[in-house]
Specification:
- Strand 2 and strand 3 form a beta hairpin.
- This protein has about 280 residues and is an alpha/beta fold.
- The chain is built from twelve helices and six strands.
- Helix content is about 55%, strand content about 10%.
- Strands 1-2-3-4-6-5 form a six-stranded mixed β-sheet, with helices on both faces.
- Helix 8 runs antiparallel to helix 9.
- The protein is elongated, with a radius of gyration of 27 Å.
- The termini are far apart.
Length: about 280
């Protein structure tokens, strides 16, 4: 039976967007932000309350804690527009917060944490982004995007970088199987808690049914895209062959030579020739 790690955003949301799992969310945030967190409130909309397995066009996890609004996004596959999408999330949350409160305070800190795989933009493990100019003068002080390059995290883990592993166990745990989690959890109660709860998610029949249907849907979508791309290429290739044949016919070149150059049959070229004459 396949074991789903928190790299999968559906598993991530089912794991962390639960009231009874706020302890492991607190553990993760403290490791990422390097601060102590006293309390956490999950910002769950009514649709998500009904079913955490539903997919919505928003962040995987949104939390308020100690004058901070924290969003978390798991980017398991990199797309050329993922940063634009991530920016939309934090700007939308920023805007709606002030519309709701009708008070432009700078006390509330807006933080977005991105765990990104297939990140070809950088080889750095960790980066912070602010809204500022070339002189590093910040336009606003209460805005921060944190990005973890998870491919580089994986490399450090596989190289058995002990210091890095000990400082980032929960981040590393996001994409570990049970055997690896067992090893990481030795003398670490945080990883033990995480392992216990991700096991429970994987054992949930409703979650597994959803994942099976989701994988089937993704496979079908990818197949349709592949067929459409192939047909588009074939159509484009055929059109290019016909246009080349027409140009060569206008130069009164030999039909057999045109056939060799275009990979069109002599019969096809004769039809193209006749269509040109009819004009």
């Amino acid at each position: 039976m396949e074991f789903y790690t928190a790299k999968n955003d559906r598993c991530f949301k089912a794991l962390y967007m639960q009231e009874n799992n706020k302890d492991i969310l607190k553990d993760l945030l403290e490791e990422v932000l390097k601060i102590k967190i006293s309390s956490i409130k999950l910002m769950i909309n009514e649709q998500t309350k009904e079913n955490v397995n539903l997919k919505y066009n928003n962040l995987d996890c949104i939390i308020t804690s100690d004058n901070k609004r924290i969003g978390i996004e798991m980017n398991s596959t990199n797309t050329e527009f993922y940063r634009v999408k991530s920016a939309c999330y934090i700007f939308d949350d920023y805007s709606h917060h002030f519309q709701k409160n009708q008070d432009y305070d700078d006390i509330t800190k807006f933080i977005q944490i991105n765990f990104t795989y297939q990140n070809s933009c950088s080889k750095d493990i960790y980066k912070e982004y602010y809204l500022q100019n070339d002189n590093q003068e910040r336009f606003i002080e209460n805005f921060l995007i944190i990005e973890y390059n998870m491919d580089e995290v994986e490399k450090r883990y596989k190289k058995n970088d002990i210091k890095f592993i000990n400082n980032n166990k929960l981040i590393i745990s996001l994409n570990r199987n049970l055997q690896e989690l067992t090893s990481l959890s030795e003398s670490d109660e945080r990883v033990k808690r995480f392992m216990k709860k991700i096991e429970k998610v994987n054992e949930d029949p409703e979650f597994r049914v959803y994942m099976t249907e989701e994988e089937k849907r993704i496979t079908e979508e990818n197949t349709i895209k592949s067929i459409a791309t192939r047909k588009g290429f074939e159509k484009g290739t055929k059109e290019n062959q016909i246009n080349t044949a027409k140009a060569m016919l206008k130069e009164k070149l030999d039909i057999n030579l045109i056939s060799k150059c275009t990979n069109l049959s002599v019969e096809e070229i004769e039809k193209i020739k006749n269509s040109l004459w009819r004009r």
